[in-house]
Amino acid sequence: MTLQDDDGNVPEGFERLKRGGPYMASLGDLYCRRDADKIVIAMRITERHTNMRGIAHGGMLASLADSALGLGLTMSCDGRNSFVTVNLGTDFIDAARPGDWAEAQVHIGRIGSRVAFAECNLMVGDKRVLRASGVFAVMKALTAAQLDAGY
């Protein structure tokens, strides 16, 4: 994959995503790529994301997966709804390290009138780091003011 020189070597095809709210903004920049059948939310793992062992903290990876699932659901319905997590299941499979480009490949299961289902694989290259599945409450769309604020 060819890397760009700006934004900490962001792979081609990714665009800066100014969503996720104040908590995700505190973790770093999110990026998005939409493929024909999936949405990918990604970020660069840095030193500030690590635990005592020098690998990405599991809670941070779970936060990335949770946010990616919610953002993916919202994007899949073109913003007609927003979503809040009801249940999140995670399986930690491997480690991510500073410098890694972590991609949450989101797959939408079903969006109903009250609940939605989605899952993702958090990948570093060809290595799966985490698997997550979530159940989300379907909420009304965010307001223009909320969107302008980065939610």
Structural account:
This protein has 151 residues and is α+β, with helices and mostly antiparallel strands. A seven-stranded antiparallel sheet has the order 1-2-3-5-6-7-4, with helices on one face. A hairpin with a 2-residue loop joins β6 and β7. The longest helix is centred in the middle third of the chain and has 19 residues. The chain is globular, with a radius of gyration of 15 Å. The termini are far apart. The N terminus is likely disordered.
Structure described in brief:
This protein is an alpha+beta fold and 151 residues long. The chain has helices spanning 21-27, 58-76, 144-148; strands spanning 15-17, 30-34, 39-44, 81-92, 101-111, 115-124, 127-140.
The overall strand count is 7
Low-confidence stretches: 1-7
How many DSSP H or I helices?
A: 3
Q: How would a crystallographer describe the biggest sheet?
A: 7 strands, antiparallel
Mean pLDDT: 90
The helix/strand series, from N terminus to C terminus, equals EHEEHEEEEH
Helix content: 10-25%
Annotation keywords:
151 residues; alpha+beta; seven-stranded antiparallel β-sheet; 7 strands; 21% helix
Detail the topology: elements first, then pairings:
Blueprint lengths: L14 E3 L3 H7 L2 E5 L4 E6 L13 H19 L4 E12 L8 E11 L3 E10 L2 E14 L3 H5 L3
Antiparallel strand pairs: 1-2, 2-3, 3-5, 4-7, 5-6, 6-7
